[in-house]
Amino acid sequence: MAIHQKQVMTLQQKLSPQQIQMIKLLELPTVQLEQRIKQEIEENIVLEEAEQQNEEEEPQQISVDEYLREDDTPAYKMRANNYSKDDKPRQIPLSGGRSLQEYLIEQLGYRNLSEEEMRLAVYLVGSIDEDGYLRRDLESVADDIAFTLGEEVSPERLEAILKVIHDLEPAGIGARNLRECLLLQLSQLPMTTRSRRLARKILTSYFDEFAKKHYEKLISRLQVTEDEFRDAIAEIRHLSPKPANGYSDGGSDAAPYVVPDFILDYHDGRFELSLNSYNVPDVRINRRYVEMMRDMVSSDGRVQEKNREAVQFVKNKIDSAKWFISAIKQRRDTLMRTMQEILDFQQEYFKTGDQSKLRPMILKDIADRTGLDVSTISRVVNSKYVQTQFGIILLKSLFSEAMQTASGGEVSSYEIKNILRSCIDDEDKRRPLTDETLMDILNDKGYCIARRTVAKYREMLGIPVARLRKQI
């Protein structure tokens, strides 16, 4: 085949390194932004933490000659009157609790186990997940032990050691499924009452029917009264489906907490919105490197050959630092601009916190008001929180689709969800409302909604189907 040359005109869209950096910073919540800034300070030698100043200077792109002529390096201050009135410096306590594995291994030390059995028991304990279950079959665990520890062990041997772990606290630890977990917890209780004995029989022989809530069938097969069956179910409900709760990651004291990205105060009919920059360091360019460049450049602006590489290195670092500082400023402006539009759109909600006053709002609504792209708004609201007088709110939860009413008006999907939750809370648990019945109730109230939409909202609320809500 002959080779031919031809000109082709194409249109391509590419992001500059500064745009990519801005996008990544925009997605970060406050806690991760603090870590990202400290990481950049460690990686870029010309960046340093700065003391807070009253005036804010905007960094600009300038040449090396301008670096050498300027009296001082401009710096961007991220914090400017954005502290809450009640904000006070505080130390964050760290939990010193033990992990679940440490707690179990400590208990194993009180058992009469040989050195080999202890090694195998510790390996099994390490295979238990955060919920307290051993979700791997013993054959696979035996293969891993042969590969990592170099010991041949049979699944029957591991089964015997696993029974030792089953006797440890918390009750039900090391179970391989929910049924075994509940039975292990029951086995550690004295079988002195009829309800506990009946509960054990249900879990042993009729677990599938119990999980599917076929209560009438169970009452008939067990030949018990409704009161006796209800007492047995109550005993089962007192058991924990996740025995490791309270032990993982050192206990509940180590539970993560939310740091709000915005602080919204409402006083005397006026809103005060600020960006929460608590513990976020201010950054600036270290003047020492500017002076270093002055020393390496002659009065006529020439750089000696031996200093050319060093000057270029420092110049690249300064450019990178100014890009980063500029991206931080643009992030702050974008966040405040977006949050201000959300506040203006949902003023009635932010006054009282009443979800029924939430207006239907989608990302495009805010994008049109700010002039930003929908993807930018999505990055702003993702994983961001605002602190209000009625609690800390996830920004993403403020967005909802509009639903048409019979009168032609629009309501937020939150209003539909609140009605669904209210109907389900007030239903007869012996005869729970089906999705079809809930659809009829909503249609009677003037909300035009289909059954599949009812099912979608019910699942979003974490509410099971009618059959699984049934109680005796």
Q: In words, what does this structure look like?
A:
Belongs to the sigma-54 factor family. One of its GO terms (biological process) is DNA-templated transcription initiation. InterPro entries: RNA_pol_sigma_54 (IPR000394), RNA_pol_sigma_54_core-bd (IPR007046), RNA_pol_sigma_54_DNA-bd (IPR007634), RpoN_core-bd_sf (IPR038709). Pfam families: Sigma54_AID (PF00309), Sigma54_CBD (PF04963), Sigma54_DBD (PF04552). By secondary structure, the protein is of the alpha+beta class. The protein has three domains: 17-80 and 264-393, no CATH class; 100-249, no CATH class; 400-469, Homeodomain-like (Arc Repressor Mutant, subunit A, Orthogonal Bundle). Helix content is 49%, strand content 7%. The strands form three sheets. The protein has a four-stranded mixed sheet with strand order 3-2-5-6, covered by helices on one side. A two-stranded antiparallel sheet has the order 1-4. A two-stranded antiparallel ribbon has the order 7-8. Strand 7 and strand 8 (410-412) form a beta hairpin. The longest helix is centred in the last third of the chain and has 41 residues, at 305-345. Mean pLDDT is 80; it is low at 54-62, 67-95 and 248-255.
Describe the structure concisely.
With 472 residues, the protein is α+β, with helices and mostly antiparallel strands. It is 49% helix and 7% strand. Residues 312-471 form the RNA polymerase sigma factor 54 DNA-binding domain.
